[in-house]
Structures are given as structure tokens and as C-alpha cells.
């Protein structure tokens, strides 16, 4: 009890200091919990829960997210599940949609509310990995007494946000553990794993949103594997991941206006005449490639005579 009282007093004291809130994202979260959500750190409580009907509705609204995340959840749990960790996938409202955990750990995690249908926002359960990651829209790690409520100070969690095909917050992926021997270093390793898995889920969501599109990697981005453009057959940008939007300064307005991928990537620009010549050259090269260099077959595919194709090839220096 003395430990719990000391924790509550520490939270109150730090939250009252403007300098502490300005310099620490944890203390800033504590202050939000007290001033915005009217919570008291000395409480022992579980997160709020939605009804079964509300949970099913939340899952239906996130069916694409769940489908695109399932393989990554299974892969991640196969790596960390035996070490006393559980995984939680929530929607953008913090509602736990999917969970992975070992049967032997289920009772303890369920008592803490790490279960499907629970709401892990700051308003529901104070400072925690999921709620604070959603509030700050960034990856966070919350270890033991960094949690707001006394009931959660045995918990260590690390969470990464997941963004949809428009770069908007769509979900959060969390690894939580109650092991006594978990350290900052261990959580750091788990944090990198959860961030990597979240990025792969983002890529899955992005590719699922643009079936039939070509995907281009933005080479100059901080994380090129997550910085993707979806491009149609006319070389117009259909969509961009958040990493690509940040790297190329793109927004929905620029994309919906009709943006050539070459312009977005700031490739060397050509005049309209040069553009047409390059488009014709590309069309002939594709036809010749598909026919394995057989000019007669390529001409038939292009709907022109063999002589016409030869003249075009000569003009475009394709012989």
C-alpha cells in the first residue's frame, strides 16, 4: 500500500510542474489524465469495456485491418509469446479487436483488462502504451510506474500506431508483459519489433487499398520500405503512405488533382513533345519484349503493319 500511495503522490507532484510536463511526454500524459479526463492515480481499476454488440460493430468497421494484420500478429506472437507477452491490436478508438496470448498467462492479463473488447484510451485507463500512442500519434514505451493508475504499475508495454492508406491513424499494435525481470533494454528490443510489425501492417493496408496499382518506393525517404506511391497505368499517383507524404510533401489535394509520379518524385522533366515520344518508345518496347523481338508479332499486337513498325523503330532508334 505504501508503494501505491508513493506512486500516486509522485504522479500528482510531477503533473503540477509545468517544466516537467513540457520536458516529459509521460508527465504530459499524466497531466492530461488529471485535468482533461478527471482521473485519480490512486485508483485500482480495469479499462472500460464496450458491449458485445459494440465490439462486433468495431470489428466489422475494421475488417480489412484485421485481415491485413493477422499474419503479422501470428508471426510476432510466435517470437515473443513464450516470454510472457501478449499482443493487442486496437482500432483508432483504442478498442481491443484482436489479441494473442499464451493460455497460461490469460488469467493475469484478463484481470488487467488486456482482453478483446477493452478500451485502452487515456480517458479509460490513464497513461498506457496504447492510449498514449494514440493520443500522441507516435510509438511509445510505458514501463511499470510510468503508468498513471496504481493498478497498472506491474505492467510494461510498448506500442506503435498504424496508419491507413491516407496516412491517418487507424489502429495501434501493443506488446505487454508483467514479468518482473523486464528491463528498459528488453522493452527497447520489443519496441523495435512492434514498430517493424506495425509498418508491415501499414504496407499491407496500403497495397490492399489500391488493387491493380503499381507501387513505387521513394528512395530518398527516411524509411524507403514504408514510403510507397500507388500509381495507375497512366503514371498518375493514386495514393501515398504517410512516409511518402512526408518525404515528398504530398497531401490529399495534390493527389486528387492528378499528379504524375515523375513530378511527385521530382524526376527530370520533359517537354510535352518529349513526353509523347517517350510514351511511344515505351509502348513499342513493351510490344517487342512481349513478342521476344519478333517484329511481325509486335506489329499485329500494336494494330499496325510490319513496315509501319519498322519506320517507327528506325525513327525512335530501336533497331
Helix and strand content put the structural class at alpha+beta
- SSE string, helix = H, strand = E? HHHHHEEHHHEEEHEEEHHHHHH
Number of helices: 15
Rounded radius of gyration (Å) = 26 Å
The strand count comes to 8
* Level-2 CATH architecture of the largest domain: 2-Layer Sandwich
How is this structure best described in words?
The chain has 15 helices and eight strands. It is of the alpha+beta class and 319 residues long. The chain folds into three domains: 162 residues, GAF domain (Beta-Lactamase, 2-Layer Sandwich); 54 residues, no CATH class; 44 residues, Orthogonal Bundle (Arc Repressor Mutant, subunit A), CATH 1.10.10. The strands form two sheets. The chain has a five-stranded antiparallel sheet with strand order 2-1-5-4-3, with helices on both faces. It has a three-stranded antiparallel sheet with strand order 6-7-8. Strand 4 and strand 5 form a beta hairpin. Helix 13 crosses helix 14.
Short description:
By secondary structure, the protein is α+β, with helices and mostly antiparallel strands. It is 49% helix and 14% strand.
What is the topological layout?
Elements: H1 2-15, H2 18-23, H3 25-35, H4 52-61, H5 63-80, E1 85-91, E2 96-100, H6 106-112, H7 122-125, H8 129-136, E3 140-143, E4 156-163, E5 169-177, H9 184-209, E6 214-217, E7 228-231, E8 237-240, H10 242-248, H11 252-256, H12 261-264, H13 272-290, H14 295-302, H15 306-315
Antiparallel strand pairs: 1-2, 1-5, 3-4, 4-5, 6-7, 7-8
Helix pairs in contact: 1-3, 5-9, 13-14, 14-15
